[in-house]
Amino acid sequence: MHYNRVHLIYFSPTHTSAKIAYAIAEGLDAVTFSESDITHETPDKIENVEEELTIIAVPVYGGRVAETAIERLRMFRSNQAPVIPVVLYGNRDYEDALKELCDLVTELGFIPVMAGAFIGEHSFSRKDMPIAAGRPDDMDIQKAMTLGKDVLKKLSSLRSLEDITPLQVKGNFPYKIKGASTPQAPVTDEELCTQCEYCIEICPTDAISILDTGMFSNPERCIKCCACVKECPEGARTFDTPYTAMLHKNFSARKEPELFI
Questions:
Q1: CATH of 187-240, one of 3.40.50.720, 2.40.170.20, 2.60.40.770, 3.30.70.20
Q2: Is the pTM of this model over 0.85?
Q3: Angle at the Cα of 194 (from 192 to 195), degrees rounded to 5?
């Protein structure tokens, strides 16, 4: 079996999921590809993915797939298109996230072929307390490309998708129960802020607005992806949480991607 078209679907506030998705696509050596970037909005109607080898890449929050990503992925359907589910986690653990993603895409009509868990710089990482800073790096990208090449080899050995055995990945069901999340959002140093509104543009949940008193981040809408913190051109956004120090202390040792074939 051979697929000339590759479809990328990703939720990627800080670009780590997108980087891995593109690297896998490069390894697939596709003739053409299309993409559905669901980072900033939910598709306005159901999207059907047919006869395209698909890559779905999403971040892990607290050992589960990011809830916003799940909501937006539910707008896709397929009639047995092969898919490569991928999760990106911040060097702690992805726990049940990859299984959750595999189960979801199967429910939506895709057939998982291979899957992977990759490391991306943690949302809470800072210069003085780095957590997987700079990940995915060149070695991660190479492993993602290798995953794409391995998928090609696997598909070329099959007569039909019916020959694919159910993919087994790390994780448990019922999935991990996430603890209650305390509403919190980044704050703005108004002396540094120029109100360029770039943070408003890149926020995946429309949590940021301008008030008479300056920039406001709605903690009820914020998903703590920290895209606005990492990408503010003036360095005017900060997110303070004691979890940063804990993660830096306990999860700084390098972890490697895990691939499931």
A1: 3.30.70.20
A2: yes
A3: 125
